[in-house]
Amino acid sequence: MLYLASQFAWFLAAAFVLGLVMGWIGRDGGNLRLAGGTAGWFAAIWGLGAALTWLQLLNGELAAWVESALLFTGVYVAGCILGSLLRGMRASAAIDSEAAAAPIAAMPPVEGEADIPGQRPAGLVSARQDKPDDLKLIKGVGRQNEARLHGLGIWHFEQMAGWTPGNIEWVGSYLAFPGRIEREDWVGQARTLAAGGQTEFAMRAKAGLVETSRDDGLAGQDNVVALDTADGTPETKPAG
């Protein structure tokens, strides 16, 4: 196989570069789009071919063809993996940079804020360029929860993508369902959407297959944000 590598060095380099490109464009935002079954079958077939050549169970022209196929596919897949990892690192860096550069607003305290465990995330007075993200594309965020998040100054996916464990604890307690944010992975969904990718839920929601405007029920009614106040500013309804 080393002989083949030396003979086809330029072609192998081209296969690696092609893999880099395909890995880069095949990355769906923050997530690598891999079909688990397909990847498993490919690995099994590649391993079988490698075993046959290693044990010298193939001879002549057939052995040369199999070794060449193994070599080229191995180099191509390595390029795909590296390209995907590089794009993922770039997307994460872009999210962190944008979140760090966002203007921090001194949002007014909410009722009982001192008693809420965790750390309240920084908020924005309004959406950047008056263009808020559709937070309802995150599974678990309906119209009611979106309004509550707006009341906290949370308008964009990258804000949620940058939440710390302390922020998650605070928001979960404030919305009166601690643990739900972790279970539904709001932060992971937000990172994917902020990077320009899509989640299965977001695609179904955009296609109108999910009732994203559904109310969350009675849980957390004491924390509902009212957006129709006299001066147009959000306020928190008092308990009871």
Automatic annotation (TrEMBL):
Q: Which residues cross the membrane?
A: 6-26, 38-57, 63-86
Q: Which UniProt keywords apply?
A: Membrane, Transmembrane, Transmembrane helix
| Name of this chain's protein | Uncharacterized protein
Upper lineage is:
Bacteria, Pseudomonadati, Pseudomonadota, Alphaproteobacteria, Hyphomicrobiales
